[in-house]
Amino acid sequence: MGTGRLEAFTDGVMAIIITIMVLEIKTPHEATPAALLASLPILLTYLLSFVNVGIFWNNHHHMLHAADTVDGAALWANLFLLFWMSLVPFVIRWLDETGFQPLPTAAYGAVLAMASVGYLLLEWALVACNGPQSKLAVAVGHDRKALVSLALYAAGIALAFVHPWIAIAIYVGVSFAWFLPDRRIETPRR
Amino acid sequence: MGTGRLEAFTDGVMAIIITIMVLEIKTPHEATPAALLASLPILLTYLLSFVNVGIFWNNHHHMLHAADTVDGAALWANLFLLFWMSLVPFVIRWLDETGFQPLPTAAYGAVLAMASVGYLLLEWALVACNGPQSKLAVAVGHDRKALVSLALYAAGIALAFVHPWIAIAIYVGVSFAWFLPDRRIETPRR
Amino acid sequence: MGTGRLEAFTDGVMAIIITIMVLEIKTPHEATPAALLASLPILLTYLLSFVNVGIFWNNHHHMLHAADTVDGAALWANLFLLFWMSLVPFVIRWLDETGFQPLPTAAYGAVLAMASVGYLLLEWALVACNGPQSKLAVAVGHDRKALVSLALYAAGIALAFVHPWIAIAIYVGVSFAWFLPDRRIETPRR
Amino acid sequence: MGTGRLEAFTDGVMAIIITIMVLEIKTPHEATPAALLASLPILLTYLLSFVNVGIFWNNHHHMLHAADTVDGAALWANLFLLFWMSLVPFVIRWLDETGFQPLPTAAYGAVLAMASVGYLLLEWALVACNGPQSKLAVAVGHDRKALVSLALYAAGIALAFVHPWIAIAIYVGVSFAWFLPDRRIETPRR
Question: Which of D32, D54, D65 sits opposite C103 (nearest CB)?
Answer without folding.
Answer: D32
